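Please check the following for our workbook:

***
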Amino acid sequence: MAADAFHQGKLAFQNNHPMSSCEYPVGSSLRAEWMAGWTESRNTEPGHFRSSTQNEGAAASNGTASEARH
């Protein structure tokens, strides 16, 4: 089932859903898989600035990728 959660996360990003839309419980392995799928899609998006330290919260606070998507 974890692969399903990963795929759901990828689809969520591709359909402009924020990372915060994940409905799996905090701390669950399914949530981690969903987040990994969402993040992979974000990181492979053309023109996306990749950084191992950047996360959705940082992007929102400095007005980069997250703001451009909403």
Remarks:
- The first helix runs from residue 2 to 14.
- Confidence is low (pLDDT under 50) at residues 52-70.
